[in-house]
Amino acid sequence: MGNFTLRSVFSNNETIPKKYTCDGDDISPPLNWEGKPEGTVSYVLIVDDPDAPAGTFTHWILYNIPGDLNSLPEGVPQGKEVEYGYQGRNDFGSYGYGGPCPPRGKPHRYFFKLYALDTKLDLPPGAKKGDVERAMKGHVIGEAQLIGLYGRG
Fold it and tell me: For 107, which of 17, 56, 61, 151 could close a Cys bridge (C-beta 3.0–4.6 Å)?
C-alpha cells in the first residue's frame, strides 16, 4: 500500500485554526494532497476525534471523491451530494463537515484520513461510517493522514 501526503493550512500535530471549529465559522479547512498511488479511482476522507469522552467521534465522511482531484477547497457545503462526492452522516447527525468542538480541558486530536481506492464505492449518498469502511475493504491502495489539535481552555 502506498502512502501519500495530505496538507492543510495547519501542519501535522499543530492547532487547527479557530475558523474551522465550532468556535469560529465551522467550515471545512482546505485540503490538498500529492503523490497519489497509481491506479487511484476515488478517495474517501474520514475526519474523527479518538479523544472524545464517549469514544471516537466522526466529524466528516466524504466518499467517491474523483481520483483526478488533488484538493478540496475551504468550506465544502453541507448535504449528501456535493461537487466533490457523497457525504456521509457525521456524529452531529448532519451530512458534511462538523468542526472540532471538544469539552473544556486538554486539546483533542483530529485525524484527517484520506484513503486512495482502486474503485468507486457502491453506496448511496448519506452512508454511515461503518458502511463506508466495510465497502472500502480490499480496495485501499494508499493512505495519507494529517492530525490537527484543538482545545477549549
Answer: 151
Confidence of residue 107 (pLDDT cuts 50, 70, 90): very high
Domain range for 1 is 1-37
- Number of domains observed in the structure of the chain: 1
3-33: pLDDT as tens digits: 899 999 999 999 999 999 999 999 999 999 9
Q: Round the CA-based radius of gyration of the chain to a whole number and report it.
A: 14
The mean pLDDT value for 90-119 works out to: 97
Q: Is residue 144 part of a domain?
A: no
In a domain, 12, yes or no: yes
Q: Is residue 122 situated within a structural domain?
A: no
Predicted local distance difference test score (pLDDT) of residue 2: 75
